[in-house]
Each structure stands twice: as structure tokens, then as C-alpha cells.
Amino acid sequence: VKEHETDLxxxxxxxxxxxxxxxxxxxxxxxxxEHWDGSRSRIHNCYNGIGSWFYEAPGGLxxxxxxxxxxxxVINPRIPAGITWANTTKETPYGTVxxxxxxxxxILEISVKIPAGCTAAVAIPENTKSFILNGRSIKTDEPFVxxxxxEYFLRFRQ
Length: 158
What we know:
Helix content: 10-25%
Order of helices and strands: HHHEEEEEEEEEE
Number of domains: 2
């Protein structure tokens, strides 16, 4: 996710042949295998990084590494080709975080719920000069909009 290889990860996730995550499922896996071919341990949970990929990449939710325990959130959906929406919920020590987004034509809509005691930096898509935040038009050249705890609706025209 940090290398922005969202489309590569998504293609690995969808791949039914060897090596691919659906290959494991198609061959009876109920947990991630140690090796792609299933030749060793068939319950190797240390390789479940794909689980965090769902809320970090298409879900767009990660913690700011400079603030422990989800005190400051970074919201930046990495949208794989062919995906038009995602709903993400994450329990944190501060409460429930929700990030839901929908992409329709050139419009990206994001609704965010930030628990009390947290802040969030929401990434503004490239080349966006203005956007809607809770019904108000905002003009900016900044890469992020900073939000306090609460519920927000953002609308970007790409």
C-alpha cells in the first residue's frame, strides 16, 4: 500500500490461478497458507497482510505513524481500477471509525466518521482546486484537509 501498488495487489487478490489468493480459497483454504502451493502449514496467520490491505488501500484508512493508537487518522482511498465503492469500519481505542466512498463518473464522494479524541487528514485528490465539505464549497491548494472528531461528507470532482 505504501508503494501505491493498489492495482497489483488487487490483481493478486482476484487471481484464481497459482500464485493467487483465490487459488488458496478455490483449493479449500480457510486461512492463508505458508506457501502459495499449500505444501507446508495451511494456517499461517502471519501472512494475513492482505486483510489490512482492504481497509488501508481501497478503504483508504490508516493511522498516522507519528500518533499512536489511531489518535490521528489518514484517509486516502487508493482506488483499484474497476472498484466504484468501499465501506470501511475499524474499531480503535477511541471508538469506531467509518470511511465510506463512492466513485461515479468523475465524482468521488466520501463520508467519514471520526471518533471523539481523534483527528483526521483527508487526502484531496490530485488537481482538485475546490471541493464540497458538509455542503460548503472549499478552495484549497493543500494536499489534505484536516478534520476534528465528527461526521463529514466530502465531494470531489475529478
